[in-house]
Amino acid sequence: METSKRNGFSMVELLVVMAVIGILVALLFPAVQAAREAARRTQCRNNLKQLGIAINNYETSNTCFPPGWIGITNGEPDVNGMNGLSWGALVLPQIEEYNAAKKLNAKVFVTNSANAILQTLRVDVFRCPSDISPQPTFSVVVNPPHVNSDLPTTFAVSNYIGSFGSTDYHPCSANPIGTGCSGNGVFYLNSWVRQPMIKDGYSNTMMVGERRTNTTATLPNPIYGTWIGAPPGGVESIGRVLGASDYPPNDPGNHFENYSSNHPGGAFVLLCDGSVQFIANNVDTALFQALATINKQDYTLVFVPQ
Asked: Which structural domain, as residue segments, surrounds residue 155?
């Protein structure tokens, strides 16, 4: 009597195959992740390049760069004054967001319900694909003792902030009406920086940088940036649209005013000449601060080859 033969894998063979597959997956997963991050980095660079073209086109048309944000009360500078619109909102036509630009109401506060549609509008060029923000919008609440009946207000998340310079902007938040808030960078309160004012040179001066979603800030909730403006009287109002290079990128202190990203090793910045460079986390702080100033003639190269 003949014995029939069974076709198939034995248990040992199956376990070996599963082990081999597991090893291959373990080897391939980091490569897949690296490829994805490389694609995200490329998109992030492209976003900044588009913003560079837009800001420089604005400068060509208006003979100056857009203000960091607008704040005026009774004709005097006011950190929390009318209307709070930022450089990001002012370059909407230059990034081909024509419909959004037409809907923008500059006669009221940026927090006013008349701007509700734009407050939550996601503009892709302002979002880094590597950011981990769990939501497209966030809420800004009032920062006592300031008063703004519009707050809390919901805004769209943005990952790119203008350069206030090498110093922290936080002391300005308590400035009375009539007192400005001038940084030593391209953008600040009611700024009107013109080409001749950038004495350090376009290729040696930072204009915009990255900021990741800050999920471990000392405030009760995560802090986000936005593109439309600095909400008058809101918590971290100035920091929603501007950043400072008083610390290197991704500093362990996790200061909200600083630049940061989820790209390994550093963050991208946009220079005034429209080029995009990668700044390493271990950059010398003094050199990074020099890159953020427009007229100290203290520039030097701090870029990481890409």
From this structure: 32-292
pLDDT at 302: 55
Q: How far apart are CA 88 and CA 118, in angstroms?
A: 12
223-239: per-residue pLDDT in tens? Answer: 789 999 999 999 999 99
Pull the structure tokens for residue 150.
């519009």
Q: Fill in the DSSP letter of residue 208.
A: E
CA 46 remoteness from chain centre:
14
User: Would you place residue 30 in the very low, low, confident or very high pLDDT band (cuts 50, 70, 90)?
Assistant: low
173 closest CA partner among 257, 288, 295: 257
Residue 257 lies in a domain: yes
DSSP SS3 for 1:
coil
Total of domains in the chain: 1
Cα angle value 60/61/67 (rounded, 5°): 85
10 Å Cβ neighbour count for 271? 21
Evaluate whether residue 178 is within a structural domain: yes
Q: Is residue 302 part of a domain?
A: no
- Residue 6, helix vs strand vs coil: coil
Beta bridge partners of 131: none
pLDDT digits (tens, 9 = 90+) for 125-140: 999 999 876 678 999 9
Evaluate if residue 191 carries a pLDDT over 90. Answer: yes
Is 283 a member of any domain?
yes
Closest CA to 261 of 281, 247, 282: 281
